[in-house]
Amino acid sequence: MFGPIPNRNRGENVTRRDPFAITFTVQGLTVRPGNDIKYLFVELADGMNDLTGFQRDLLYVIAGADKPSGQDIKSEIERYYSSEIDHGRLYPNLDTLVNKGLVEKGELDRRTNYYAITEAGEQAIRERQDWERQYTDS
User: Fold this and answer.
1) Given a cut of 80, is residue 12 above it in pLDDT?
2) Could you read off the pLDDT of 58-100 as tens digits, one per residue?
3) Domains of the chain listed by start with CATH number
4) Phi, psi (rounded to 5 degrees) for 14
5) Can you give the C-alpha Rg of the chain in angstroms?
6) What SS3 class is residue 52?
7) Residue 31: band (very low, low, confident or very high) from pLDDT cuts 50, 70, 90
8) pLDDT tens profile 94-104
């Protein structure tokens, strides 16, 4: 029932284990006991080149805060954009960052999630800044 899962992005296999028995990490995403998981699909980001501008902005906001809630992120991004951001735009984009392994999502309480930058997210930001610097530094 549990065994190798092909990783379509890198051609590698990861091992699927019984998520109800142990905590395990696959490509930087942690799965803990009690999660109702039948299948785990991981889509790895290749830096920031496949993110939208809005997703990059979300990533920067998360990187600059200490485990912000979705509402904290929404408030900060609304201040930058000078307009209201609909939940239907915010949360699917946050989920994309989580699915790409750039952000970790955790639970503060039953109603509130937090978001934290992962090492892959920090690396993507560093690489983006290096790329931008070659065009902006004189």
Assistant:
1) no
2) 999 999 999 999 999 999 999 999 999 999 999 999 999 999 9
3) 1-42 (no CATH), 53-136 (1.10.10.10)
4) -120, 155
5) 16
6) coil
7) low
8) 999 999 999 99
Q: Which of 104, 136, 123, 134 is nearest to 47 (CA)?
A: 123
Output the furthest CA–CA distance in the chain (Å, rounded).
58
Beta bridge partners of 132: none
* Torsions phi, psi for 122 (to 5 deg): -65, -40
CA–CA dist 43, 51 (Å, integer): 12
| 29 contacts: CB under 8 Å, gap ≥ 6 | 40, 42, 98, 101, 104
Residue of 12, 1, 37 lying closest to 22 (CA atoms): 37
Q: Which two tokens stand for residue 107?
A: 């639970």
Q: Please state, in angstroms and as integers, the Cα–Cα distance from residue 49 to each residue in 29, 35, 38, 112, 124, following that order.
A: 21, 31, 30, 30, 9
Q: With cut-offs at 50, 70 and 90, classify the pLDDT of residue 128.
A: very high
The verdict on pTM exceeding 0.90 is no
Cα distances (Å, whole numbers) of residue 46 to 28, 76, 112:
14, 26, 29
Q: How many other CB atoms sit within 10 Å of the CB of residue 98? A: 16
